[in-house]
């Protein structure tokens, strides 16, 4: 009987120690997340340089009138390159809807891709994207040298490339706006400027 009582006491001590260790680890993870700031969009050096005029194109829009690119419009435009088979692209669609609502006073959002029209029509229907301009153009992707998805380009009111980069989260999308406002093209450039 005494052996059984000792083993129960030892097990309770082990459970209390494990609980303390789990609590300490959870606290350390929370501290780590506070210290690590979100990384901005990964800027690509290919394609039009920041400050250069966006390529001048007129493209068909699956959801309405054709779109002109590269001309001064008086409003900024975020071009979001996506694929129907890209899970991260689909995960960012609610963020794009929210950004469009939050920034409606100065920003238009255009969805861009290439390929056959049918899968894109299905995506438009299933994700409720009927109100977004949606262009299918391999030429647009080639002009901006889009190599990986999801990729976004912010074109300012005067038709110039203000920011661009590979984006995997809402924070990275919003970092394009910060880059445009501050004139610092990326988080990486800001860190490099701080260290030099």
TrEMBL record:
Residues 48-182 form the Thioredoxin domain. The keyword Transcription does not apply. It comes from the Bacteria. The chain crosses the membrane at residues 6-26. InterPro entries: Redoxin, Thioredoxin-like_sf, Thioredoxin_domain. Coiled coil: none annotated. Keywords: Membrane, Transmembrane, Transmembrane helix. This is Redoxin domain-containing protein. The lineage of its organism: Bacteria, Pseudomonadati, Pseudomonadota, Alphaproteobacteria, Rhodobacterales.
